[in-house]
Write a structure and sequence with these properties.
This protein is α/β, with parallel strands linked by helices. The protein has eight helices and 14 strands.
């Protein structure tokens, strides 16, 4: 059975005053997917989400979101797409409850019961003004509201860093349940290790281009870790695609290597590190080496 594609970009490029922010970006995200878009600050992640929301234009390429071209006014899809960004700032003199009573009127599928339940669970007071909320509380309220509109797609831009650890764990679990029920999440974040367990698909963006686009379950088939305990002189350690990833508690050093590269060097059993490569390590590998996954 063919998966329903929720987001499809083909060759999307964006230039700002001579600076190439996005370059030939192409990928697909299927319904029910938790997709993590990771990259350094300035890599183009926020620009990409703004394009998907119809908030920014692009110079080349094509894009489709929920079956509609992003050349069109996606405002007609406000009931199907939830968008949360760290740039949202509810600096309003009115009470939180009053604001969302009016906000809910714009969304035909608004779930007031869900909204009140999540606000209560996060201990977010509806009886105070937004000016009494911390930045993290404002982002939590924005996330709750995005979920309450009952969207098909959630676009979440760089908010995990402003949430405390308990709030992050809470909402990551909520978002994972959302995808289990058929919704789709595209989230940009720098808090990589905490989203790994929820991630189905990972896209690494670097200098405006895609370095990696893989299902998380396929990563072990493409990368391995090796370790060097005694400064062993093996050809693999001289290969530029063998990347140092850290020192271990026993004093050995671990490296990340594409399996295709490892096969060229006949790596002995004693050098293999049985631990799986994680998202933090993949992120560092692709950003620092400039490699692109084949």
């Amino acid at each position: 059975m063919m998966e329903k594609v929720v987001i499809k970009l083909c060759g999307v490029s964006r230039n700002f005053y001579g600076s190439q922010v996005l370059q030939n970006v192409s990928f697909e995200i299927a319904a029910g997917t938790f997709c993590s878009l990771i990259g350094e600050n300035g890599a183009g992640k926020s620009t990409l989400l703004n394009i998907l929301m119809g908030l920014e234009s692009f110079d080349e390429g094509e894009g489709v979101v929920l079956g509609k071209s992003i050349y069109l006014d996606l405002g007609v899809m406000k009931n199907e797409i939830g968008f949360v960004s760290e740039k949202i700032n509810y600096d309003l003199p009115i009470k939180v409850g009053q604001f969302f009573e009016n906000y809910a009127l714009f969304f035909q599928n608004w779930d007031q019961k869900l909204f009140l339940t999540l606000m209560k669970e996060r201990k977010l007071d509806l009886g105070v003004s937004f000016r009494e909320y911390s930045r993290g509380q404002k982002m939590q309220a924005a996330l709750v509201a995005a979920l309450a509109i009952k969207p098909k797609l959630l676009l979440i831009d760089e908010i995990t860093s402003v949430l405390d650890i308990w709030a992050r764990k809470y909402f990551i679990e909520i978002l994972k349940n959302f995808t289990t029920e058929g919704g789709t999440v595209l989230i940009t974040t720098n808090v990589i290790n905490e989203i790994q367990y929820a991630t189905d698909q990972v896209i690494i963006l670097n200098k405006g281009g895609i370095q990696l686009n893989e299902k998380l379950k396929d990563i072990p088939n493409k990368f391995i870790k090796i370790r060097n305990a005694k400064n062993e002189e093996h050809t693999i350690f001289k290969d530029p695609k063998c990347f140092w990833s850290g020192e271990n508690s026993d004093g050995t050093f671990s490296y990340i290597v594409p399996i295709t590269v490892a096969e060229e060097h006949s790596i002995p059993e004693r050098l293999l590190d049985r631990r799986a490569v994680n998202l933090d390590e993949l992120f560092i590998y692709f950003v620092k080496t400039g490699e692109r996954s084949k």
